[in-house]
User: What shape does this take?
Amino acid sequence: MHRYSTSKRYYVYILANAERKKLYVGISNNVWRRRLEHRQGFSKGYAYENKCFDVIYVEEFTRIEEALSREKQIKSYGRLKKIDLVKGANPTLESLKSPSELQAEWVQLTTAERAERIAKMGRTSPTNEE
Assistant: This one.
């Protein structure tokens, strides 16, 4: 009999509006679904009202208690501290792409473009010494 992992994943995420003036901190077991719910106005709260639809930061947890604690901690931060946190992982505050968005982008590349991206990844690897 095969054992499959039944462990859940929980994510604390930060959404931003297009101008990066407004930030929203949330928790979900599916960031990309939750982003869509915010965008569609599933609950017309802060994220929807301020058009915070760009995922700019994500942390993953296996225990809900840890994720809830971290969400509360980040929510207690001032705006500048939140921005500093995001910039540690995402210096340009760019909108992160979902796995399906990345896959769709990859499929549209030519073979040469794919090879170029793969080569570039090898050059920028942290273990790659020059």
